[in-house]
Design goal:
Blueprint: H1 7-11, H2 17-24, E1 28-32, H3 33-43, H4 48-52, H5 56-74, H6 78-101, E2 111-113, H7 115-147
Parallel strand pairs: 1-2
Length: 148
Amino acid sequence: MADQYDFDELYANTYTAADQLAHESEPTSEKRFVPAWALTLFLGPTGAHRWYLTRRISALLMLAASLTTVALLVAGQQTLGLLCLTVVIAWTLIDLIMLLTGSMRDRADLRLAGHRERAGLCAAITVILLALVLMISLMISASARVTG
């Protein structure tokens, strides 16, 4: 079935030199990509990256969700606390993906300065760190089963 389509014709001129020039000539924000990425990676559940990008309402909501998670877990409401934790972590991962793909912009809807130059390296570091966290959590889980 794939041999019935002319993929060269289908994908011809989908991203032209004019498109690239238009993208490169877009104004960029005063906000830098690397600090936003680092804040998302290390302080993401607190909404620090959203405070940095001056998205105050969503930052406040993210912080409130994180504080609610902590309060529920401390109060012994494990089911609700873990549900809130899942929402906060999912929100953080979505923000991280949006940031790395260039979809997350500042409040004025300007793209972050330095994204084009640093996004690839930051994405690689992110994947390595997430893989390490996953391996460590799997080792902790396996050792807890063996000892307990």
